[in-house]
Amino acid sequence: MPVPASGTAHLLAGGHGGPGVLRPMVDTVLDALAHGAADRGGPLPAGGPAAVDRRIRGAARPLIPDEGEGPHHALRTLVRALTHGAADPADPRCTAHLHCPPLAVATAADLAVSALNPSLDSWDQAPAACALEALTCRALAELVHPDGPAPDALVTTGGTESNQLALLLAREAAGGIGSPLRIICGGNAHHSIHRAAWFLGLPAPHPLPTPTGVLDPAALHTALDRLPDADAPTLVVATAGTTDTGAIDPLPEIADVCDHHAATLHIDAAYGAPLLFSDTLHKRLHGLDRAPTVALDLHKLGWQPVAAGLLAVPDSAALAPLAHHAEYLNADDDTEAGLPDLLGRSFRTTRRPDIFKIAVTLRALGRRGLGDLVDHVCTAAQQLADLIEARPGLELYARPIISTVLFRPTGAPPAAVAALRRRLLHHGTAVLGRAATPEGLWLKATVLNPHTQPDDLRGLLELVEGHTTP
Length: 470
Prior knowledge:
Layout: H1 18-40, H2 48-60, H3 71-84, H4 104-116, H5 127-144, E1 152-156, H6 159-173, E2 182-186, H7 191-199, E3 206-208, H8 217-225, E4 234-239, H9 251-261, E5 264-268, E6 293-297, E7 309-313, H10 327-330, H11 332-336, H12 355-389, E8 394-396, E9 404-409, H13 414-427, E10 433-437, E11 440-446, H14 454-466
Parallel strand pairs: 2-3, 2-4, 4-5, 5-6
Antiparallel strand pairs: 1-7, 6-7, 8-9, 9-11, 10-11
Helix pairs in contact: 1-3, 2-3, 4-12, 5-12, 6-7, 8-9, 12-14
Keywords: Decarboxylase, Lyase, Pyridoxal phosphate
Family: Belongs to the group II decarboxylase family.
GO molecular function: aromatic-L-amino-acid decarboxylase activity; pyridoxal phosphate binding
């Protein structure tokens, strides 16, 4: 067997010697992260796409040198360049998206997963991770469906995959490929609902107008009443935490309508589900447990590194349509002998144990610790709304439901709002999103940093006012 060249020997992260090799490289990465953040100096690199491209080209070339430059040089150069050119969600002025600053404990846990490299497509590649995933998924599913006969959850890459899985399960329950399943959702529903229907060969969803930002149960009742062929299977999609405003549909009333019409309910709670951790805010999710499928995403309001999605069901039997067989991964005799069959737990084959960082976080902080973080960012969003209402030069769209706040310079037309946002991005001083409502275009601040203080919020508004043109 060939022996690796001396320059590449003893570089594996695993095994008995792996931690000793990895430790100095981690130190190099941490130093580069610190230097890159200092180079950037704000929440976003200044200069826009052209400037970022220029700096990355300078740092990355040669991309594939004839001779390697060694791990420390490569890490030092490229991690520093990546950090310099990153949007930093840990900066309180970085509030554009549902893009959270990850907890240090979750990030450290993710390092262990990368070093060990388990793959959850067969038990013999990930024995402990397999067992921990089963336990943690059940515990999280019990938060969503406390009275379910056998609550369970699948780990996904995020809300998009969770919604896709939910539509797939509904399609299979309605007869499989070519089924007459109809999908009704609000105009506020996430775009992934429409994409999933296309991907699965289902008819395009029928969106109901949501002028108030939420799905109206009366309008849903009317729409279901008017559907031809009342016995055809129908899936209703509700949302608990919209991307644009954080609005939560009236879940109990929608569930009642679904029961009346024998329609199946799926709730996309990718944003809002972590309210379940809060002793007070969990009440906003009353009715969540009445949906046979619920999407969660803990790399939004759960402070996990990407990816950390889940799809929760009240009974693990509902996941049976996902069963799949590959002789080399889940042979019948292995399964009969007690080796867990993992192929029915994901679309994917090779799959890293993203549940591990979630399990470590849950153990480290507990439900109340995570609930405190949820409470803090939701309170900070209310404080931001207060500050906006106190400034005559700014107008607030509505009081926040979770942690998303829409605002704009008073009376500003859409073009001015869009240009203001781009100016802030170009200067690298603030990262704000944009959201369109019937009342026009708004700046969007999604408060996800649990360290955010009122002075940070005031500073953000001062930046907006300083870049506002008459």
